[in-house]
Amino acid sequence: MRNPARLAAALSGRPLLMREASVPALARMLGVEAGERGSPLATFVGRARRAFAGREDQQVRTEPLATAPRWVGEPDATGSGWVLKDGVGILEIEGPLMAEGFGWGETWYHGYDTLYRAYEEMFADARVGAIWEVVRSPGGVVDAGLPELAAFKRANRDAAGGKPIHAFLRDGYSAAYWEPSASDRIVAARESGVGSIGAVVTWCGMAGALEKDGLEIRAFTFGKRKADASPFAPLSETAEASLQAEIDQCGRWFVADVLAGRPTLTEEAVLATEAGCFFGDSDNPALSALHHGLVDEIATERTAFAAIRDLAAARLSTSPAPNRAPAATKDTDMKRSAVMAAARKAGLSKDQIRKLGAELPEDEAPADEDEGEDDEVSDQDETDEEATSDAADGDEDEEGEVDAKVAKAILNHPEAKGREDMAQDLAFTPGITEARAVRLLSKAPKGAGKGQLASVLAGSQRLGPDADTGKDKGPASASSTWAKNRPAARR
Protein backbone atom coordinates (compact mmCIF):
# COMPACT_ATOMS: atom_id res chain seq x y z
CA MET A 1 0.00 0.00 0.00
CA ARG A 2 1.18 3.50 -0.79
CA ASN A 3 0.85 6.36 1.64
CA PRO A 4 0.03 9.88 0.42
CA ALA A 5 3.71 10.74 0.00
CA ARG A 6 4.10 7.81 -2.39
CA LEU A 7 0.93 8.90 -4.16
CA ALA A 8 2.51 12.30 -4.72
CA ALA A 9 5.65 10.69 -6.11
CA ALA A 10 3.57 8.49 -8.42
CA LEU A 11 1.80 11.53 -9.87
CA SER A 12 4.97 13.56 -10.29
CA GLY A 13 6.03 13.85 -13.92
CA ARG A 14 3.35 11.43 -15.18
CA PRO A 15 1.06 12.32 -18.06
CA LEU A 16 -2.26 13.05 -16.40
CA LEU A 17 -5.80 12.43 -17.57
CA MET A 18 -6.96 15.06 -15.12
CA ARG A 19 -7.89 18.70 -15.10
CA GLU A 20 -4.85 20.69 -14.01
CA ALA A 21 -7.16 22.86 -11.90
CA SER A 22 -8.20 19.79 -9.91
CA VAL A 23 -4.75 19.14 -8.47
CA PRO A 24 -4.99 21.74 -5.65
CA ALA A 25 -8.35 20.24 -4.62
CA LEU A 26 -6.72 16.80 -4.54
CA ALA A 27 -3.97 18.23 -2.36
CA ARG A 28 -6.51 19.63 0.10
CA MET A 29 -8.34 16.28 0.16
CA LEU A 30 -5.12 14.68 1.35
CA GLY A 31 -4.62 17.33 4.00
CA VAL A 32 -1.94 19.16 2.00
CA GLU A 33 -2.05 22.88 1.34
CA ALA A 34 -1.34 24.40 -2.06
CA GLY A 35 -0.55 27.91 -3.17
CA GLU A 36 3.20 28.23 -3.58
CA ARG A 37 4.59 29.51 -6.83
CA GLY A 38 5.14 26.93 -9.52
CA SER A 39 2.79 24.33 -10.95
CA PRO A 40 -0.03 23.07 -8.71
CA LEU A 41 1.22 19.51 -9.13
CA ALA A 42 4.78 20.37 -8.10
CA THR A 43 3.42 22.20 -5.07
CA PHE A 44 1.27 19.24 -4.14
CA VAL A 45 4.17 16.81 -4.44
CA GLY A 46 6.43 18.84 -2.18
CA ARG A 47 3.89 19.53 0.52
CA ALA A 48 2.55 15.96 0.52
CA ARG A 49 6.02 14.58 1.10
CA ARG A 50 6.60 16.93 4.02
CA ALA A 51 3.15 16.49 5.56
CA PHE A 52 3.31 12.71 5.58
CA ALA A 53 7.00 12.18 6.25
CA GLY A 54 7.45 9.57 8.98
CA ARG A 55 3.78 8.54 9.02
CA GLU A 56 4.27 4.98 7.81
CA ASP A 57 2.04 3.79 10.66
CA GLN A 58 -0.99 5.30 8.93
CA GLN A 59 -3.71 2.63 8.88
CA VAL A 60 -3.97 1.26 5.36
CA ARG A 61 -6.88 -0.53 3.71
CA THR A 62 -6.36 -3.83 1.94
CA GLU A 63 -9.85 -4.05 0.42
CA PRO A 64 -11.93 -1.42 -1.40
CA LEU A 65 -14.76 0.25 0.46
CA ALA A 66 -18.12 -1.12 -0.67
CA THR A 67 -20.34 1.97 -0.73
CA ALA A 68 -23.50 3.32 -2.31
CA PRO A 69 -25.42 6.60 -2.07
CA ARG A 70 -26.99 6.81 1.39
CA TRP A 71 -30.50 7.20 0.03
CA VAL A 72 -30.57 3.72 -1.59
CA GLY A 73 -30.70 2.18 1.90
CA GLU A 74 -28.91 -0.86 3.24
CA PRO A 75 -27.63 -3.15 0.50
CA ASP A 76 -28.70 -6.75 -0.03
CA ALA A 77 -25.08 -7.92 -0.29
CA THR A 78 -21.58 -6.53 -0.73
CA GLY A 79 -18.72 -7.36 -3.05
CA SER A 80 -15.20 -6.14 -3.58
CA GLY A 81 -15.82 -2.41 -3.90
CA TRP A 82 -19.48 -2.73 -4.97
CA VAL A 83 -22.85 -3.41 -3.38
CA LEU A 84 -25.99 -5.22 -4.52
CA LYS A 85 -29.34 -3.45 -4.18
CA ASP A 86 -32.61 -4.58 -5.77
CA GLY A 87 -30.79 -6.60 -8.42
CA VAL A 88 -28.45 -3.72 -9.32
CA GLY A 89 -24.69 -3.85 -8.80
CA ILE A 90 -23.73 -0.36 -7.58
CA LEU A 91 -20.17 0.91 -7.96
CA GLU A 92 -19.20 4.31 -6.56
CA ILE A 93 -16.09 5.96 -8.00
CA GLU A 94 -14.82 8.98 -6.08
CA GLY A 95 -11.55 10.87 -6.13
CA PRO A 96 -8.58 10.49 -8.49
CA LEU A 97 -8.16 7.24 -10.41
CA MET A 98 -4.87 5.39 -10.01
CA ALA A 99 -3.20 2.43 -11.68
CA GLU A 100 -3.61 0.43 -8.45
CA GLY A 101 -6.33 1.09 -5.92
CA PHE A 102 -5.31 1.87 -2.34
CA GLY A 103 -6.60 3.59 0.76
CA TRP A 104 -6.09 4.35 4.39
CA GLY A 105 -8.51 5.07 7.21
CA GLU A 106 -11.94 5.78 5.74
CA THR A 107 -10.51 6.85 2.37
CA TRP A 108 -10.29 4.67 -0.70
CA TYR A 109 -8.96 5.58 -4.16
CA HIS A 110 -10.05 3.15 -6.84
CA GLY A 111 -7.44 1.85 -9.22
CA TYR A 112 -8.08 0.46 -12.66
CA ASP A 113 -7.23 -2.91 -11.13
CA THR A 114 -9.86 -2.76 -8.38
CA LEU A 115 -12.51 -1.49 -10.81
CA TYR A 116 -11.71 -4.39 -13.13
CA ARG A 117 -12.13 -6.86 -10.27
CA ALA A 118 -15.45 -5.30 -9.24
CA TYR A 119 -16.75 -5.62 -12.80
CA GLU A 120 -15.56 -9.22 -13.02
CA GLU A 121 -17.57 -10.07 -9.91
CA MET A 122 -20.71 -8.23 -11.04
CA PHE A 123 -20.66 -9.81 -14.51
CA ALA A 124 -20.31 -13.28 -12.93
CA ASP A 125 -22.90 -12.82 -10.16
CA ALA A 126 -26.31 -14.21 -11.19
CA ARG A 127 -28.04 -11.90 -8.69
CA VAL A 128 -26.87 -8.82 -10.62
CA GLY A 129 -29.30 -7.96 -13.40
CA ALA A 130 -27.71 -4.62 -14.31
CA ILE A 131 -24.82 -2.39 -13.22
CA TRP A 132 -24.90 1.24 -12.15
CA GLU A 133 -21.79 3.28 -11.50
CA VAL A 134 -21.85 6.68 -9.85
CA VAL A 135 -18.84 8.83 -10.72
CA ARG A 136 -17.39 11.89 -9.00
CA SER A 137 -13.77 12.20 -10.08
CA PRO A 138 -11.46 14.81 -11.63
CA GLY A 139 -9.67 12.10 -13.61
CA GLY A 140 -6.52 10.09 -13.10
CA VAL A 141 -3.21 8.91 -14.46
CA VAL A 142 -2.27 7.38 -17.80
CA ASP A 143 -1.83 3.64 -17.37
CA ALA A 144 -2.34 0.46 -19.40
CA GLY A 145 -5.05 -0.63 -16.95
CA LEU A 146 -7.48 2.07 -18.14
CA PRO A 147 -7.96 1.01 -21.79
CA GLU A 148 -7.93 -2.62 -20.62
CA LEU A 149 -10.78 -1.87 -18.21
CA ALA A 150 -12.76 0.00 -20.89
CA ALA A 151 -12.35 -2.88 -23.35
CA PHE A 152 -13.49 -5.39 -20.71
CA LYS A 153 -16.63 -3.36 -20.03
CA ARG A 154 -17.45 -3.02 -23.73
CA ALA A 155 -17.06 -6.77 -24.25
CA ASN A 156 -19.51 -7.57 -21.44
CA ARG A 157 -22.06 -4.78 -21.63
CA ASP A 158 -25.62 -5.05 -22.93
CA ALA A 159 -24.62 -3.90 -26.42
CA ALA A 160 -22.31 -6.95 -26.64
CA GLY A 161 -24.89 -9.38 -25.23
CA GLY A 162 -23.94 -8.99 -21.56
CA LYS A 163 -25.39 -6.98 -18.69
CA PRO A 164 -26.61 -3.39 -19.04
CA ILE A 165 -24.21 -0.78 -17.63
CA HIS A 166 -25.42 2.74 -16.88
CA ALA A 167 -23.13 5.48 -15.60
CA PHE A 168 -24.33 8.51 -13.66
CA LEU A 169 -21.82 11.37 -13.76
CA ARG A 170 -21.82 13.76 -10.86
CA ASP A 171 -18.42 14.83 -12.16
CA GLY A 172 -16.71 12.83 -14.86
CA TYR A 173 -13.62 14.50 -16.22
CA SER A 174 -10.83 13.07 -18.36
CA ALA A 175 -9.97 9.52 -17.14
CA ALA A 176 -13.26 9.60 -15.24
CA TYR A 177 -15.00 10.13 -18.59
CA TRP A 178 -12.84 7.60 -20.46
CA GLU A 179 -13.94 4.80 -18.11
CA PRO A 180 -17.72 5.57 -18.17
CA SER A 181 -17.63 5.99 -21.96
CA ALA A 182 -17.55 2.18 -22.17
CA SER A 183 -21.03 2.00 -20.55
CA ASP A 184 -24.25 1.37 -22.46
CA ARG A 185 -25.71 4.67 -21.28
CA ILE A 186 -24.38 7.84 -19.64
CA VAL A 187 -26.70 10.01 -17.57
CA ALA A 188 -25.82 13.30 -15.86
CA ALA A 189 -27.57 15.97 -13.86
CA ARG A 190 -27.91 19.39 -15.40
CA GLU A 191 -25.30 20.73 -13.00
CA SER A 192 -22.85 17.84 -13.45
CA GLY A 193 -19.34 18.32 -14.79
CA VAL A 194 -18.44 16.36 -17.93
CA GLY A 195 -15.63 16.25 -20.47
CA SER A 196 -11.94 17.19 -20.51
CA ILE A 197 -11.16 14.62 -23.20
CA GLY A 198 -7.44 15.30 -23.26
CA ALA A 199 -4.16 14.79 -21.44
CA VAL A 200 -1.64 17.06 -19.75
CA VAL A 201 1.89 16.99 -18.39
CA THR A 202 3.27 20.00 -16.54
CA TRP A 203 6.84 21.28 -16.69
CA CYS A 204 8.05 23.83 -14.15
CA GLY A 205 11.37 25.56 -14.85
CA MET A 206 13.40 26.62 -11.83
CA ALA A 207 16.58 27.78 -13.57
CA GLY A 208 15.72 31.49 -13.36
CA ALA A 209 14.88 31.35 -9.66
CA LEU A 210 18.05 29.39 -8.90
CA GLU A 211 20.18 31.87 -10.82
CA LYS A 212 18.77 34.76 -8.75
CA ASP A 213 19.74 32.87 -5.63
CA GLY A 214 23.25 32.35 -6.98
CA LEU A 215 22.78 28.62 -7.49
CA GLU A 216 23.79 26.56 -10.52
CA ILE A 217 22.83 22.91 -10.99
CA ARG A 218 24.43 20.86 -13.74
CA ALA A 219 23.50 17.32 -14.80
CA PHE A 220 26.05 14.84 -16.13
CA THR A 221 24.26 12.19 -18.17
CA PHE A 222 24.80 9.03 -20.12
CA GLY A 223 22.48 9.49 -23.04
CA LYS A 224 21.89 12.83 -24.74
CA ARG A 225 18.23 13.05 -23.74
CA LYS A 226 18.55 11.65 -20.21
CA ALA A 227 17.99 15.05 -18.58
CA ASP A 228 15.33 16.27 -21.03
CA ALA A 229 12.70 18.41 -19.28
CA SER A 230 14.84 18.84 -16.15
CA PRO A 231 13.45 21.75 -14.11
CA PHE A 232 16.99 22.96 -13.40
CA ALA A 233 17.76 23.93 -17.01
CA PRO A 234 15.90 25.73 -19.81
CA LEU A 235 13.53 23.48 -21.77
CA SER A 236 15.21 22.41 -25.01
CA GLU A 237 13.41 22.15 -28.34
CA THR A 238 13.86 18.39 -28.41
CA ALA A 239 12.51 18.04 -24.87
CA GLU A 240 9.51 20.22 -25.74
CA ALA A 241 8.80 18.17 -28.88
CA SER A 242 9.10 14.92 -26.92
CA LEU A 243 6.66 16.02 -24.23
CA GLN A 244 4.16 17.19 -26.85
CA ALA A 245 4.44 13.92 -28.78
CA GLU A 246 3.84 11.97 -25.58
CA ILE A 247 0.72 13.92 -24.75
CA ASP A 248 -0.57 13.73 -28.33
CA GLN A 249 -0.29 9.95 -28.23
CA CYS A 250 -2.23 9.77 -24.95
CA GLY A 251 -4.91 11.96 -26.52
CA ARG A 252 -5.24 9.70 -29.57
CA TRP A 253 -5.66 6.64 -27.36
CA PHE A 254 -8.29 8.51 -25.34
CA VAL A 255 -10.31 9.61 -28.37
CA ALA A 256 -10.18 6.14 -29.94
CA ASP A 257 -11.60 4.52 -26.80
CA VAL A 258 -14.35 7.13 -26.47
CA LEU A 259 -15.39 6.46 -30.07
CA ALA A 260 -15.34 2.70 -29.47
CA GLY A 261 -17.62 3.12 -26.48
CA ARG A 262 -19.92 5.73 -28.00
CA PRO A 263 -20.46 4.97 -31.70
CA THR A 264 -22.89 7.92 -31.97
CA LEU A 265 -19.90 10.28 -31.72
CA THR A 266 -17.47 11.11 -34.50
CA GLU A 267 -13.78 11.89 -34.23
CA GLU A 268 -14.44 15.40 -35.52
CA ALA A 269 -17.06 16.00 -32.83
CA VAL A 270 -14.78 14.78 -30.04
CA LEU A 271 -11.79 16.80 -31.24
CA ALA A 272 -14.04 19.84 -31.56
CA THR A 273 -14.56 19.83 -27.79
CA GLU A 274 -10.84 20.74 -27.46
CA ALA A 275 -10.73 18.99 -24.07
CA GLY A 276 -13.26 21.46 -22.73
CA CYS A 277 -15.31 20.95 -19.58
CA PHE A 278 -19.09 21.19 -19.77
CA PHE A 279 -22.21 21.18 -17.63
CA GLY A 280 -24.53 18.22 -18.07
CA ASP A 281 -26.77 20.65 -19.89
CA SER A 282 -26.95 24.40 -20.33
CA ASP A 283 -29.05 27.10 -22.03
CA ASN A 284 -25.83 27.80 -23.95
CA PRO A 285 -25.23 24.82 -26.28
CA ALA A 286 -21.50 25.48 -26.22
CA LEU A 287 -21.45 24.60 -22.51
CA SER A 288 -23.72 21.54 -22.76
CA ALA A 289 -22.37 17.97 -22.64
CA LEU A 290 -25.77 16.79 -23.89
CA HIS A 291 -25.47 19.04 -26.93
CA HIS A 292 -21.98 17.70 -27.69
CA GLY A 293 -23.20 14.10 -27.41
CA LEU A 294 -21.09 13.26 -24.36
CA VAL A 295 -24.15 12.14 -22.34
CA ASP A 296 -27.39 10.44 -23.36
CA GLU A 297 -29.82 11.91 -20.86
CA ILE A 298 -30.25 14.57 -18.20
CA ALA A 299 -31.90 13.27 -15.03
CA THR A 300 -31.59 13.29 -11.27
CA GLU A 301 -29.56 10.60 -9.56
CA ARG A 302 -32.64 8.94 -8.07
CA THR A 303 -34.44 8.90 -11.41
CA ALA A 304 -31.40 7.37 -13.06
CA PHE A 305 -31.25 4.61 -10.43
CA ALA A 306 -34.99 3.88 -10.73
CA ALA A 307 -34.52 3.30 -14.47
CA ILE A 308 -31.64 0.84 -14.09
CA ARG A 309 -33.44 -0.91 -11.20
CA ASP A 310 -36.51 -1.50 -13.38
CA LEU A 311 -34.28 -2.80 -16.15
CA ALA A 312 -32.54 -5.19 -13.74
CA ALA A 313 -35.87 -6.47 -12.41
CA ALA A 314 -37.18 -7.15 -15.92
CA ARG A 315 -34.03 -9.03 -16.88
CA LEU A 316 -33.89 -11.11 -13.69
CA SER A 317 -37.56 -12.07 -14.02
CA THR A 318 -36.87 -13.67 -17.40
CA SER A 319 -33.53 -15.24 -16.49
CA PRO A 320 -33.22 -18.84 -15.31
CA ALA A 321 -32.70 -19.35 -11.60
CA PRO A 322 -29.02 -19.18 -10.63
CA ASN A 323 -27.10 -22.42 -10.16
CA ARG A 324 -29.74 -24.36 -12.09
CA ALA A 325 -28.70 -27.25 -14.32
CA PRO A 326 -29.92 -26.93 -17.90
CA ALA A 327 -33.02 -28.94 -18.72
CA ALA A 328 -32.05 -32.44 -19.80
CA THR A 329 -32.74 -33.49 -23.38
CA LYS A 330 -33.14 -36.96 -24.84
CA ASP A 331 -29.47 -36.93 -25.86
CA THR A 332 -28.17 -35.93 -22.43
CA ASP A 333 -30.57 -37.88 -20.12
CA MET A 334 -28.66 -40.37 -18.01
CA LYS A 335 -29.75 -43.96 -18.55
CA ARG A 336 -31.21 -45.94 -15.65
CA SER A 337 -28.33 -48.39 -15.77
CA ALA A 338 -25.78 -45.54 -15.53
CA VAL A 339 -27.55 -44.02 -12.53
CA MET A 340 -27.72 -47.36 -10.76
CA ALA A 341 -24.04 -47.98 -11.46
CA ALA A 342 -23.24 -44.58 -10.00
CA ALA A 343 -25.34 -45.43 -6.93
CA ARG A 344 -23.39 -48.63 -6.35
CA LYS A 345 -20.10 -46.79 -6.85
CA ALA A 346 -21.19 -44.21 -4.29
CA GLY A 347 -21.63 -46.99 -1.69
CA LEU A 348 -25.38 -46.65 -1.07
CA SER A 349 -27.13 -49.31 1.02
CA LYS A 350 -29.39 -51.99 -0.44
CA ASP A 351 -32.52 -50.14 0.61
CA GLN A 352 -31.31 -46.86 -0.87
CA ILE A 353 -30.46 -48.46 -4.21
CA ARG A 354 -33.82 -50.29 -4.36
CA LYS A 355 -35.71 -47.05 -3.62
CA LEU A 356 -33.76 -45.28 -6.34
CA GLY A 357 -34.36 -48.11 -8.83
CA ALA A 358 -38.09 -48.00 -8.15
CA GLU A 359 -38.24 -44.31 -9.06
CA LEU A 360 -36.14 -44.44 -12.24
CA PRO A 361 -37.82 -45.09 -15.62
CA GLU A 362 -36.70 -48.03 -17.69
CA ASP A 363 -34.05 -47.55 -20.38
CA GLU A 364 -35.41 -47.39 -23.89
CA ALA A 365 -33.69 -50.63 -24.84
CA PRO A 366 -32.90 -52.41 -21.56
CA ALA A 367 -30.69 -55.44 -21.56
CA ASP A 368 -31.78 -58.43 -19.43
CA GLU A 369 -28.39 -58.76 -17.86
CA ASP A 370 -28.40 -55.08 -16.87
CA GLU A 371 -31.80 -55.44 -15.22
CA GLY A 372 -30.49 -58.25 -13.11
CA GLU A 373 -27.57 -56.13 -12.02
CA ASP A 374 -29.79 -53.21 -11.07
CA ASP A 375 -31.74 -55.17 -8.50
CA GLU A 376 -28.81 -56.91 -6.90
CA VAL A 377 -26.29 -55.59 -4.43
CA SER A 378 -23.09 -57.51 -3.76
CA ASP A 379 -21.73 -58.35 -0.35
CA GLN A 380 -18.90 -55.91 -1.14
CA ASP A 381 -21.48 -53.14 -1.57
CA GLU A 382 -22.72 -53.76 1.98
CA THR A 383 -19.16 -53.75 3.27
CA ASP A 384 -18.46 -50.49 1.46
CA GLU A 385 -21.55 -48.85 2.99
CA GLU A 386 -19.85 -48.26 6.32
CA ALA A 387 -16.63 -47.04 4.66
CA THR A 388 -18.46 -44.43 2.61
CA SER A 389 -20.95 -43.23 5.22
CA ASP A 390 -18.67 -40.26 5.92
CA ALA A 391 -20.04 -38.67 2.73
CA ALA A 392 -23.21 -37.90 4.65
CA ASP A 393 -21.06 -36.47 7.45
CA GLY A 394 -23.46 -37.86 10.03
CA ASP A 395 -25.71 -34.85 9.61
CA GLU A 396 -28.02 -35.99 6.79
CA ASP A 397 -31.74 -36.31 7.17
CA GLU A 398 -32.04 -40.02 7.89
CA GLU A 399 -35.70 -39.98 6.93
CA GLY A 400 -34.99 -38.28 3.59
CA GLU A 401 -35.07 -40.14 0.31
CA VAL A 402 -32.95 -39.94 -2.81
CA ASP A 403 -34.72 -37.92 -5.48
CA ALA A 404 -33.85 -39.48 -8.85
CA LYS A 405 -34.46 -36.27 -10.79
CA VAL A 406 -32.24 -34.30 -8.43
CA ALA A 407 -29.56 -37.00 -8.66
CA LYS A 408 -29.57 -36.86 -12.46
CA ALA A 409 -29.48 -33.04 -12.47
CA ILE A 410 -26.49 -33.02 -10.12
CA LEU A 411 -24.58 -35.61 -12.14
CA ASN A 412 -25.31 -33.75 -15.40
CA HIS A 413 -24.49 -30.29 -14.03
CA PRO A 414 -21.41 -28.47 -15.50
CA GLU A 415 -19.98 -28.10 -11.97
CA ALA A 416 -19.74 -31.91 -11.77
CA LYS A 417 -17.20 -32.01 -14.59
CA GLY A 418 -13.83 -32.87 -13.11
CA ARG A 419 -15.49 -33.64 -9.75
CA GLU A 420 -17.41 -36.76 -10.82
CA ASP A 421 -16.65 -38.82 -7.70
CA MET A 422 -17.81 -36.10 -5.36
CA ALA A 423 -20.87 -35.42 -7.56
CA GLN A 424 -21.92 -39.06 -7.25
CA ASP A 425 -21.61 -38.91 -3.47
CA LEU A 426 -23.76 -35.80 -3.36
CA ALA A 427 -26.29 -36.98 -5.96
CA PHE A 428 -27.34 -39.95 -3.84
CA THR A 429 -27.31 -38.21 -0.48
CA PRO A 430 -30.84 -38.40 1.04
CA GLY A 431 -32.56 -35.04 1.24
CA ILE A 432 -29.94 -33.14 -0.81
CA THR A 433 -31.18 -30.38 -3.11
CA GLU A 434 -29.72 -29.59 -6.50
CA ALA A 435 -28.83 -26.01 -5.59
CA ARG A 436 -27.07 -27.08 -2.39
CA ALA A 437 -25.08 -29.78 -4.18
CA VAL A 438 -24.03 -27.39 -6.94
CA ARG A 439 -22.80 -24.85 -4.39
CA LEU A 440 -20.73 -27.53 -2.64
CA LEU A 441 -19.30 -28.71 -5.95
CA SER A 442 -18.35 -25.17 -6.93
CA LYS A 443 -16.32 -24.82 -3.72
CA ALA A 444 -14.38 -28.04 -4.26
CA PRO A 445 -11.20 -28.26 -6.36
CA LYS A 446 -11.20 -30.15 -9.64
CA GLY A 447 -10.67 -33.85 -9.07
CA ALA A 448 -12.35 -33.75 -5.65
CA GLY A 449 -13.45 -37.21 -4.55
CA LYS A 450 -14.97 -38.95 -1.57
CA GLY A 451 -11.99 -38.22 0.60
CA GLN A 452 -12.48 -34.47 0.18
CA LEU A 453 -16.25 -34.33 0.61
CA ALA A 454 -16.03 -34.31 4.40
CA SER A 455 -13.68 -31.30 4.40
CA VAL A 456 -15.98 -29.38 2.05
CA LEU A 457 -18.93 -30.18 4.31
CA ALA A 458 -17.00 -29.31 7.49
CA GLY A 459 -18.82 -26.69 9.48
CA SER A 460 -21.95 -26.99 7.31
CA GLN A 461 -25.36 -27.64 8.76
CA ARG A 462 -27.65 -30.41 7.51
CA LEU A 463 -27.94 -30.84 3.77
CA GLY A 464 -31.68 -31.24 3.61
CA PRO A 465 -34.08 -28.77 1.95
CA ASP A 466 -34.28 -26.66 5.13
CA ALA A 467 -30.59 -25.82 4.82
CA ASP A 468 -30.91 -24.74 1.22
CA THR A 469 -32.08 -21.17 1.64
CA GLY A 470 -30.37 -19.94 -1.51
CA LYS A 471 -29.45 -16.72 0.25
CA ASP A 472 -25.75 -16.19 -0.14
CA LYS A 473 -23.96 -13.50 1.80
CA GLY A 474 -22.19 -12.22 -1.28
CA PRO A 475 -19.27 -12.98 -3.59
CA ALA A 476 -16.61 -15.20 -2.09
CA SER A 477 -13.91 -12.64 -2.79
CA ALA A 478 -15.58 -9.96 -0.66
CA SER A 479 -13.66 -9.86 2.57
CA SER A 480 -15.64 -7.21 4.39
CA THR A 481 -19.24 -6.35 5.17
CA TRP A 482 -21.18 -3.17 4.51
CA ALA A 483 -21.21 -2.28 8.19
CA LYS A 484 -17.46 -2.70 8.41
CA ASN A 485 -16.64 -0.88 5.18
CA ARG A 486 -19.13 1.95 5.28
CA PRO A 487 -17.42 5.31 5.80
CA ALA A 488 -18.17 7.13 9.01
CA ALA A 489 -19.08 10.33 7.19
CA ARG A 490 -21.17 10.23 4.03
CA ARG A 491 -22.63 12.85 1.80
Keywords for this structure?
2-enoyl-CoA Hydratase, Chain A, domain 1; 19 helices; 38% helix; eight-stranded mixed sheet; three-stranded antiparallel sheet; alpha/beta; 491 residues; 13 strands
Account of the protein in words:
- The chain is of the alpha/beta class and 491 residues long.
- A hairpin with a 2-residue loop joins strand 4 (83-85) and strand 5 (88-94).
- The protein contains 19 helices and 13 strands.
- It has helices spanning 4-11, 23-29, 40-51, 112-124, 145-156, 175-178, 207-212, 237-261, 267-272, 301-318, 336-346, 350-359, 368-374, 379-387, 404-412, 420-427, 434-443, 450-457, 482-485; strands at 16-18, 60-61, 77-78, 83-85, 88-94, 102-104, 107-109, 130-137, 139-141, 165-173, 185-195, 277-279, 297-298.
- The strands form three sheets. Strands 3, 4, 5, 8, 10, 11, 12 and 13 form an eight-stranded mixed sheet that branches. The protein has a three-stranded antiparallel sheet with strand order 2-6-7, with no helix packed on it. The chain has a two-stranded antiparallel ribbon with strand order 1-9.
- The chain has three domains: 4-58, no CATH class; 62-197 and 273-318, 2-enoyl-CoA Hydratase, Chain A, domain 1, CATH 3.90.226; 336-467, no CATH class.
- The longest helix has 25 residues, at 237-261.
